[in-house]
Amino acid sequence: MKAIVVHEYGGPEVLKFEEYPDPVPGRGEVLVRVAAASVNPIDYKRRAGLTKDFYPLTFPGLIGVDVSGTVVKVGPGVVTFTAGNRVFAMADNTYAELCVVKADVLADIPEGLDLIQAAALPLVTVTGNQLLSATEIKAGQTVLVVGAQGNVGRSAVFTAKERGATVIAGVLKRQMDEAKTVGADQVVATDDDSAIANLSPLDAVADAVGGRTAEKLIAKVKPGGVYASVVGAPQNAAKYPSVRVVTVFSHFDRDTLQFMAEAVRDGKLAIPISEELPLSEAAEAQAAAEKGGIGKILLVP
Questions:
Q1: How many H-runs (helices) and E-runs (strands) does the chain carry?
Q2: For the purposes of burial, counting CB atoms within 10 Å of the CB of 33, is it exposed (0-12), middle (13-18) or buried (19 or more)?
Q3: How are the residues of the chain apportioned to helix, strand and coil, as percentages rounded to the nearest 5?
Q4: What H or E segment, with its residue span, contains residue 169?
Q5: I need a labelling partner for 104 at 20 to 30 A (CA). Which of 22, 123, 190, 224 fits?
Q6: How far apart are CA 146 and CA 179, in angstroms?
Q7: Whether pTM exceeds 0.90
Q8: Pairwise CA distance, residues 10 & 266, whole Å
Q9: pLDDT tens digits for 157-194?
Q10: What is the mean pLDDT of the chain?
Q11: How many CA atoms lie within 13 A of 26 on its CB side?
């Protein structure tokens, strides 16, 4: 098969479009013909060696965590999937024409959702849902979602509204107008100190950004409230012992993925897709993604 192969850590130029041995499904595994993979920050951080302490590459190796495609064959012991099923997942080694996925982390794509576009959803929608869930926000309470214009943030906003919470979208000043479309009740510029100072006390914060903004916003959480983050605790968290700080690491959950995907299919949640590029252009795709932007970039074999 053709795949994007990495022989050493480095910049986008280390992503090589090459022949690579076809994977073979073992017990409990499914072989998927990849319709699309999507580019995520974890992909280019891993390529650059920034995750080698906890998520290393073995060279030559493959990368990629999002996949959508069609089942080719199943390994021994798999009874939940058969050849031809349309599936998607958070997996490994997805920048390739073929991918082996453990059956217990594979999900059926909801009817009516585009096969290729489904690849944009697994990591960001599940992460956003789990980030918001970690705040334990309840109906009638107020949560600020930091980075609400991003795809994890959009997913967190949607989840919060589904729970009946009042949602404030935290974005940059330049994103204020566009952020009015993410479904929040209010929008605040997190790079405007006066806007942050004027915030009423919050029941919770769901943070997809971190940095200095986090240090300012934890001060706005009520005693007994929750500060949940996918980028680690604010540096000054120890100054606020009355705030429970939760670091969120996304993990696969089939029901969550299918629920979020159905919301996208039904137009309740939008995960913008900026480009669909050939798999062979993975280096260009990652270079573009590293420059920032809202839309997901998909790689199509």
A1: 7, 15
A2: middle
A3: 30, 30, 40
A4: strand 166-171
A5: 22
A6: 12
A7: yes
A8: 40
A9: 999 999 999 999 999 999 999 888 899 999 999 999 99
A10: 97
A11: 0
